[in-house]
């Protein structure tokens, strides 16, 4: 395999790292790792208002969190401004660019696009791309204040860094026609291009922060694991060609190729991400899960000692059911305190029922006579009552909501055993007033 391959991730730091951008980083990284090439990071920090040190820090942290390591020191675009201007002068000298003072605001440098014929390139994802020269326009490469424009800086840096493949979002397809002409005018071989499909929402529109979480930092905060987010983003625009979805880094590196990238838009499916994250959480070593579990519980201001059992006991049923760490406090609070909130929807659906009060009282009094409060013993009681009240659901649901405040959670009998007999009975009775219609 050819190992002269050099790719780069070239974000413009803004303080937030959009998932569409980091997906480009992931594809570049995997391409480099698969081919044995080099993966570089170039910070396009020429917009001095947005590219603050904090914005750059956020970017670097996101890269590190996702384990996107790069093979050479970071290149900051602002450090190359002299090279950009040198290239502009070269273009002026060779007649590829001219000066103009169109708006009367001072002279800027403009790059000449071809005026006839057809511009074409072969996109490794999108196929043959064409544009009539007459549909293109000359464009500014150096502003009247002397600062280089994105197109020039981007191309000159790609030349300086010896980039062989540009893998980026398809919002840059139009720019590519300009960039290729710049490469040629500067006497450089244009790189190969691969434009990744847009990430879209349910309506097929570009996925933005209005649709939900869109930044790496938000997913991190909500308790997504970096490996799960990485895996999910890889499948937004790429597929291994078999039915694998969960893949290890090694498997991804082995399977990755640009010709498996999809050209059509990739729909962001939060349900799938939650499912995938749940799979990664379930597979975590127990002590790692426990550490994060306790951190989330304590950050939420909940005491970290469960009432009737140990943290390890609680984790057994909770770990395989957790979709994100952010869900933990709300899903588990009843293990730690009597002061757990009741979901309004769950109360309306399960407790505001004609017989719910009687069911809770009867369950409580039958539990009182159980000597050894095992899962089987609790189940026997509930089954008997289920016969009387028309089915398991009629009893299980109100009991669950009464003792936990929510309608979903671990298996009911396991949960009751962990909460303990006396506490369960007290909770059932305490919830009875809430059943009043
Ligand atoms: N800074 C540009 C962006 O973030 C770079 C695009 C590219 O990869 O060439 O969109």
What does this structure look like?
- The protein is α/β, with parallel strands linked by helices and about 425 residues long.
- Helix content is about 45%, strand content about 10%.
- The protein has 18 helices and twelve strands.
- The chain has helices at about 20-35, 55-65, 80-95, 150-160, 175-185, 215-220, 225-235, 250-255, 270-280, 285-300, 310-320, 330, 345-350, 355-370, 375-390, 390-405, 410-420, 420-430; strands at about 5-10, 40-45, 75, 95-100, 110, 120-125, 125-130, 140, 165-170, 190-195, 200, 265.
- A three-stranded parallel sheet has the order 1-2-3. The chain has a three-stranded antiparallel sheet with strand order 4-5-8. Strands 6-7 form a two-stranded antiparallel ribbon.
- β2 (about 40-45), α2 (about 55-65) and β3 form a beta-alpha-beta unit.
- α3 crosses α4, α13 packs antiparallel against α16 (about 390-405) and α14 (about 355-370) packs antiparallel against α18 (about 420-430).
- The longest helix has 17 residues, at about 20-35.
- The N and C termini lie far apart (about 70 Å).
- The model has no long low-confidence stretch (mean pLDDT about 95).
- The structure holds glutamic acid.
- Glutamic acid binds next to β9.
Topology:
Blueprint: E1 6-9, H1 19-35, E2 38-43, H2 53-65, E3 75-76, H3 81-93, E4 97-100, E5 108-111, E6 118-123, E7 127-132, E8 139-142, H4 150-160, E9 165-169, H5 173-185, E10 192-196, E11 199-200, H6 216-221, H7 226-234, H8 249-255, E12 266-267, H9 270-282, H10 286-299, H11 311-318, H12 328-332, H13 344-351, H14 356-368, H15 375-389, H16 392-404, H17 412-419, H18 421-431
Parallel strand pairs: 1-2, 2-3, 9-10, 11-12
Antiparallel strand pairs: 4-5, 5-8, 6-7
Helix pairs in contact: 1-8, 3-4, 4-5, 7-9, 13-16, 14-15, 14-16, 14-18, 15-16, 15-17
């Amino acid at each position: 395999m050819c190992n002269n391959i050099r790719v780069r991730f070239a974000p413009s730091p803004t303080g937030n790292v959009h998932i569409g951008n980091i997906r480009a980083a992931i594809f570049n990284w995997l391409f480099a790792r698969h081919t044995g090439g080099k993966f570089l990071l170039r910070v396009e920090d020429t917009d001095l208002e947005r590219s603050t040190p904090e914005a750059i820090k956020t970017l670097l942290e996101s890269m590190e969190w996702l384990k996107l390591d790069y093979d050479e020191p970071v290149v900051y675009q602002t450090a190359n401004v002299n090279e950009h201007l040198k290239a502009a002068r070269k273009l002026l000298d060779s007649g590829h660019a001219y000066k103009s003072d169109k708006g009367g605001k001072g002279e800027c440098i403009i790059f000449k696009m071809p005026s006839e014929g057809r511009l074409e390139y072969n996109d490794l994802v999108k196929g043959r791309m064409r544009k009539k020269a007459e549909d293109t326009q000359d464009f500014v490469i150096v502003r009247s204040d002397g600062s280089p424009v994105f197109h020039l800086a981007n191309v000159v840096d790609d030349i300086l860094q010896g980039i062989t493949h540009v893998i980026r979002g398809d919002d840059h397809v139009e720019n590519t026609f300009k960039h290729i002409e710049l490469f040629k005018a500067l006497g450089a071989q244009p790189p190969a291009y691969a434009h990744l499909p847009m990430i879209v929402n349910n309506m097929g529109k570009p996925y933005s922060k209005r649709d939900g979480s869109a930044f790496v930092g938000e997913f991190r905060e909500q308790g997504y694991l970096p490996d799960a987010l990485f895996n999910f983003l890889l499948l937004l625009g790429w597929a291994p060609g078999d039915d694998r979805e969960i893949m290890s880094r090694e498997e991804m590196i082995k399977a990755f190729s640009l010709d498996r990238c999809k050209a059509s838009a990739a729909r962001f499916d939060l349900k799938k991400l939650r499912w995938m994250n749940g799979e990664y959480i379930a597979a975590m070593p127990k002590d790692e899960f426990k550490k994060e579990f306790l951190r989330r519980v304590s950050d939420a201001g909940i005491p970290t000692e469960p009432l009737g059992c140990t943290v390890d006991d609680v984790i057994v049923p909770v770990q395989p059911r957790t979709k994100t760490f952010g869900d933990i406090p709300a899903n588990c609070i009843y293990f730690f305190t009597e002061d757990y909130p009741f979901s309004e929807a769950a109360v309306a659906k399960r407790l505001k029922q004609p017989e719910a009060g009687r069911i809770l009282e009867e369950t409580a009094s039958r539990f009182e006579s159980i000597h050894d409060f095992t899962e089987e013993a609790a189940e026997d009681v509930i089954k008997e009552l289920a016969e009387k009240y028309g089915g398991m659901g009629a009893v299980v649901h109100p009991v669950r909501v009464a003792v936990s405040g929510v309608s979903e959670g671990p298996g009911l009998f396991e949960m009751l055993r962990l909460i303990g007999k006396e506490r369960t009975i007290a909770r059932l009775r305490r919830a009875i007033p809430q059943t009043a219609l």
